[in-house]
Write a structure and sequence with these properties.
Blueprint (H helix, E strand, L loop, with lengths): L1 H51 L1 E2 L2 E2 L1 H13 L2 E7 L4 E4 H6 L3 H10 E2 L8 E7 L2 E10 L1 E2 L5 H50 L14 H50 L4 H32 L5 E5 H18 L3 E4 L6 E5 H17 L5 E8 L3 E8 L37 H11 L3 E7 L3 E9 L6
Parallel strand pairs: 10-12
Antiparallel strand pairs: 1-2, 3-4, 3-7, 5-8, 6-7, 9-11, 12-13, 13-15, 14-15
Length: 459
């Protein structure tokens, strides 16, 4: 790309230089036409003056001599012939009639004796009658100091210098500009090659806010998504391998024990069945986390909702399950709060937390609160369950993490818990740009508060 940009700029430079040469040619042509026009006007003035020196069938030598002197001053070597072709006067004869001082000055302007070349012939007429012929040719100058020559020379020198400055400057600009334009693309290419080789940590630094800069920002977002997906994949595979190892080992142990007669066959088969059920639950959990991950990278539809109605609807749907355990679920407020959010992800977050609060709450129930401070809004879910030990709280959002004591966590602990619920909640909240705070005390309950950015409602 750098080469193409450079060549394109060189083509523009060459076109500009060509236009300069054409400009020079036009200037020189117009100047020559101007000079020739002036000389032609001067010659016809001399021609008219010579014709005016003839009257009553004879030439006025004094007037004719003055006309020749003016012609010489204009740089013309003149001869005047009568109707019979005889010479009447010439520049040489006119020079002889001058004083020594004047002659010396005239000779300083041109070499009258060194002038060579053919004469141009022009007929002389008076009232339609031919009275003679005037012969004209330019004098051989002593020094080439004619103004038109100096003008041409200086003009050409100026244009050549300008060509060099403009051409050299344009070439330098072309090099720098091609480097500047191609550098971000080159950086993107190198970064893309690293990603293709499996390095998802690479990022580019946008150096502008144009289309290339936006492309670099989009590339960085893509790299972040790929890195996150790769980390999730590696983490998931590692955890799956760890989780599968235990039940498979137990299955093998019980099968060998039954074969060796170490344990009762019926008891061994029952243990094997329990481990198979555990594997089924694990596979189901893996399907859930896979579905959740698919939603992480899908941009949901932003919808305006009334948070009061949204939370009331969820609590009413889950109320029968709470009544079955003798528990209660309530929304603490009745104020309208309109927000713009991804309702599908938000519902999954709230439903997950409430469901697991139900699982690990034996008395009391769950209370839901919400509010806003102008820039963010929050949703708070508080239960009266068994709580989470303080030293376990930093780990509850890790996948497959479970509290192995008498006080299981809301989502991760307890029988049958796979340790995926809060991991899904945390990752969905991160995707939505939110954050989660957890407060818990053993045997007193747990409070989850989730904060999200307050977007303006489209009302």
């Amino acid at each position: 790309m750098k080469t193409k940009i450079f060549l394109a700029l060189i083509a523009v430079i060459l076109a500009a230089l060509l236009s300069n040469f054409i400009f020079e040619w036009l200037i020189m042509r117009d100047f020559d036409n101007y000079v020739n026009g002036v000389k032609e006007d001067q010659f016809y003035w001399v021609l008219a003056s010579v014709e005016g020196s003839y009257s009553d069938g004879r030439w006025d030598k004094q007037a004719l001599s003055e006309s020749i002197h003016w012609a010489m001053m204009l740089g013309l070597d003149i001869k005047v012939l009568n109707a019979e072709g005889q010479e009447v006067i010439s520049s040489h004869k006119a020079m002889e009639s001058l004083s020594d001082t004047m002659k010396h000055r005239m000779e300083g302007l041109f070499h009258i004796h060194e002038t060579t070349g053919n004469f141009d012939e022009y007929p002389l007429y008076i009232k339609g009658k031919k009275i003679g012929t005037i012969l004209s040719r330019p004098f051989q100058k002593e020094r080439i100091k004619e103004k038109e020559f100096i003008f041409k020379k200086r003009t050409k020198n100026f244009l050549y210098v300008s060509f060099l400055i403009a051409g050299g400057g344009s070439l330098l600009i072309a090099l720098l500009l091609s480097q500047y334009l191609s550098k971000p693309i080159t950086n993107l290419k190198k970064a893309a090659e690293k990603i293709a080789s499996g390095d998802f940590t690479v990022r580019t630094s946008p150096i502008s806010y144009d289309e290339v800069g936006k492309l670099a920002e989009t590339f960085n977002k893509m790299a972040e998504s790929l890195q996150r997906e790769e980390e999730l994949r590696e983490h998931l595979l590692s955890n799956i391998a760890h989780e599968l190892r235990t039940p498979l080992t137990i299955l093998k142990t019980h099968a060998e024990a039954i074969t060796d007669g170490v344990i009762d066959r019926e008891k061994g088969l029952e243990n094997i069945k329990n481990e198979i059920d555990r594997l089924i639950r694990l596979v189901k959990g893996i399907e859930d986390i896979t579905a959740a991950e698919a939603s992480f990278f899908t941009k949901g539809e932003m919808t305006e909702i009334n948070l009061k109605e949204f939370l009331s609807g969820l609590s009413n749907e889950m109320l029968p399950a709470f009544k079955e355990k003798g528990l209660d679920i309530k929304v603490a407020r009745e104020d309208d709060l309109f927000i713009v959010t991804d309702t599908e992800k938000l519902e999954r977050i709230i439903r997950n937390i409430i469901s697991n609060s139900l699982k690990f709450t034996e008395k009391g129930g769950v209370w839901i609160d919400y509010g806003t401070d102008g820039k963010t809004f929050f949703i708070e879910i508080k239960d009266s369950g068994k709580g989470i030990p303080e030293n376990e709280i930093p780990f509850i959002f890790n996948r497959f993490y479970r509290v192995e004591n008498q006080i299981p966590s809301l989502v991760k602990g307890g029988e049958g818990g796979l340790g995926l619920g809060l991991a899904i909640v945390k990752e969905l909240a991160d995707v939505m740009g939110g954050k989660i705070e957890v407060k818990s005390k053993a045997n007193e309950g747990t409070t989850f508060r989730i904060y999200f950015v307050m977007r303006p409602a489209n009302r």
